[in-house]
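Open question from group meeting: does this chain pack into something compact, or does most of it stay loose? Before anyone orders reagents, we agreed to write out a predicted structure and look at it together. Recording both the input and the output here so the notebook holds the full record.
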Amino acid sequence: MPYVVTEACIKCKYTDCVEVCPVDCFYEGENMLAIHPDECIDCGVCEPECPAEAIVPDSEGDTAKWLELNTEYAKIWPNITKKKDPLPDADDWKDVKDKFDEHFSAKPGEGS
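Structure tokens returned:
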């Protein structure tokens, strides 16, 4: 059961999770991260590190959309292995719901 990044990450992009990942399975988009499900070893150390609570097991609730999105974008976004500062207004967006339709960006981030 891999973990997935959900829409709670959009416009926040905290990278505390990246720092603890033992297999470097995070990929960086312009305004969110993705986990490559084939690389994730299901250890779960990333989940409690996310201030936005954006990381969940793919077996939790309605995560099929997020598994698909993580799979797709982890293949094209650059790998990120080092912690960076979150987006400048991340704290303002952390608890905002339903961000995907209006705020998701498919553009890649910088990676590390």
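Observations to bring back to the group:
The mean pLDDT is 95.
DSSP finds four helices and four strands in the chain.
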